[in-house]
Amino acid sequence: MNLYLPVAEMSVNIFLLLGLGGVVGILSGLFGVGGGFLLTPLLMMMGVPAPVAAATDANQIVAASVSGTIAHMRRMNVDFKMGTYMVVGGLVGSKLGVEVVEQLKALGQIDFVITVLFVVMLGTIGSFMFLEGLRALRGGAAEQAAAKPAKEPRVRLPLRTYFPTSGLETSVLVPLGVGAFVGVLAAIMGVGGGFIMVPAMIYLIGMPTQVVVGTSLFQILFTTANTTFWQSVQNQTVDIVLALLLLIGSVVGAQVGTHLGSKLQGEQLRILLALIVLATAVKLLMDLVLVPADLFVVGAGGGH
């Protein structure tokens, strides 16, 4: 059954979009990521223009994050104090990212830039998380002890404060900076930024993996909601029909993912997420290198 998407100006299969939303919802609850790093490229591969795919994906991430955050709140796995600082940074970063998207659209380079950013970011983060996950599994008890919340801040900056839920003390500048960077990515790439935020919270800040997932979803919720608003008002690239179909699947999937995540160790979650991230990066790189003509055709349309 096909349905016409007014903003994307194309017809798509309803059940395919529901399935994609469900997969992203599972990733959201399982890993604490919005899933945009996977869904945005998949929508682009289906023929959805990159600006529409990115902006609409940010909208559906809101619903997946709400569902996942509620599930983790019931398990007391959300550090609201840490998440609030990240939200403040994310709101500023997402507005800045929307301005960048507007300029890139005017230049007709938005599709190419989004694809290259995905390849670089996913390849880097995926490789790092995969290697760290392997080290944690090989290290056994000693490595698990090292992965516990840091007693001393791993990044020494001013304005230090204590975060009781995470059991650590660090500078508020760290979560503010991480949130701002993720906010920019949310606007440009249509991602929640969890694939950056999760490793940053684990390795840079020193938060325990169980708390990281819920806190990441809490921050992603507000950042992507802000991104969706500004993309809709300023760039008119949010396809509400596409968003609603993705929302339905993602809300259900997030609950399933949260249940599955409670049965896996932190190290196993990192390796699984890393493999998914790397696989997506490889696919995008192949499209960029082997089929460059398609990218220029899409890019030309994006400038209209």
TrEMBL record:
Membrane topology (UniProt): Multi-pass membrane protein
Record keyword Transmembrane present: yes
Coarse class of the protein's main subcellular location: membrane
Keywords: Cell membrane, Membrane, Transmembrane, Transmembrane helix
Family annotation (InterPro entries): TM_pro_TauE-like (IPR002781), TSUP/Inactive_protease-like (IPR051598)
Annotated transmembrane regions: 12-39, 112-131, 172-193, 200-220, 240-257, 269-286
GO cellular component: plasma membrane
Cellular localization per UniProt: Cell membrane; Membrane
Similarity annotation: Belongs to the 4-toluene sulfonate uptake permease (TSUP) (TC 2.A.102) family.
Record-given protein name: Probable membrane transporter protein
